[in-house]
Design brief:
The complex is a heterodimer of chains A (about 110) and B (about 120).
Chain A: E1 4-5, E2 10-14, E3 19-21, E4 24-25, E5 33-38, E6 45-50, E7 56-58, E8 64-68, E9 73-78, E10 87-94, E11 102-104, E12 108-113
Parallel strand pairs in A: 2-12
Antiparallel strand pairs in A: 1-4, 3-9, 5-6, 5-10, 7-8, 8-9, 10-11, 10-12
Chain B: E1 4-7, E2 10-13, E3 19-25, E4 32-38, E5 44-51, E6 57-58, E7 67-73, E8 76-81, E9 90-97, E10 107-108, E11 112-116
Parallel strand pairs in B: 2-11
Antiparallel strand pairs in B: 1-3, 3-8, 4-5, 4-9, 5-6, 7-8, 9-10, 9-11
The chains are: A mainly beta (about 110), B mainly beta (about 120).
Amino acid sequence: AQSVSQHNHHVILSEAASLELGCNYSYGGTVNLFWYVQYPGQHLQLLLKYFSGDPLVKGIKGFEAEFIKSKFSFNLRKPSVQWSDTAEYFCAVNDGGGYNKLIFGAGTRLAVHP
Amino acid sequence: GAVVSQHPSWVICKSGTSVKIECRSLDFQATTMFWYRQFPKQSLMLMATSNEGSKATYEQGVEKDKFLINHASLTLSTLTVTSAHPEDSSFYICSARDSAGVAYEQYFGPGTRLTVT
């Protein structure tokens, strides 16, 4: 069965620092990968997604992620974080089944200090 | 576009009662909707896949008689927590797939916080 691992459970950064959140998945077939963000008290929002093509994917709010097939990774990056990026970040992979269910990682809680 | 709503946003009920949570796709049709459960500071766990006009598909370990799902129209799925107990207290989130959109994308509702006393 597919699984998703997020290595950093809690990250604390100062504003303007660079961010990289790790995500590894276990499925060896064709995958569709996603990063979602959940701001405090709000619902999940899609940051970016990878289906095919250019492995470097750009999303909203200056985020990007790189799909490295050989490493089964899809790490999220942002060159300079802001206080408003404080949120929980979830990596997800679709299971490739008929319903295209999403398998979520455990999440990474990011706190950005001014 | 692609807005999903949930009602209620929060509910408190007494142990032993049943609670119904609605999930609506507001500007698109959704043949498939999903129900998740999120415990505090944890990830989303898929409970079931809801299909319009047919029975829901439950994930392993989820009691289908306790968590009743009905997807009676292309814009509405409901989750009923029957005979709720304090351990059912959680954040319930639904998502919906646009029937006319990309198959892999899901749009999430804002969630419903259930507290059972």
